[in-house]
Amino acid sequence: MRPALIVSILFALLCMSGCGGDMVPAADREVAVAFADVLDLYNERLELTEQAVLLARKHLSPDAPALAQIGRSRTAVADLHASSALLDSPASFERFDVAQRDLTDAFSQLLIACEGIRRLKASPAFRALQSRLASSAGRIAFARERYDEAARRYNAARHRFPFALADMLHPTQDRPAFAAPDGTPVHRHPRTDFDALRGSLRVESQRFRPRA
């Protein structure tokens, strides 16, 4: 590195102490706090997963595909041992994001299977679980957006002068952001076979047709 460049960097670092030099560290703290909230909310949802599985097992077959799918998704999430260290590894952060969205999809399939059982669908426990799950999804979506905004502010601060010069001496990396929204687990009503329904109605009408 040329002496002139070294002098420029040192001068910039000195100037930072008097012009908001704590901007990047403060932005990084904001990122850490926002991501900690995301982790806490996902951990709460993992507890809801356990409750959902216990409720579903009382009514679904042990080999039901929805139970198998949510079991695999729960294991994938647990195996990640998610922590703030994910912020330093974009690849690990992406695996975390994908695993959580897969768990959301698995939740959706489990709800669909449960809604196919009239007694379970009408139970207060199932309705309460749906309500808690919707509330959890809303809070998670808000926390993810808050984290993404904090990450964008941090990344922008890193690339502004004079902080970009400091990064040449102590290289850091941008904070990763979530690639796609994590939706709300939703139920989809089973598809009605209208041809079969019309056939059934024709049979019923013939049964009750008055004889000539």
TrEMBL record:
SUPFAM superfamilies: LemA-like. Its main location: membrane. It is a single-pass membrane protein. It comes from the Bacteria. The keyword Membrane applies. Keywords: Membrane, Signal, Transmembrane, Transmembrane helix. This is LemA protein. It comes from Paraburkholderia atlantica.
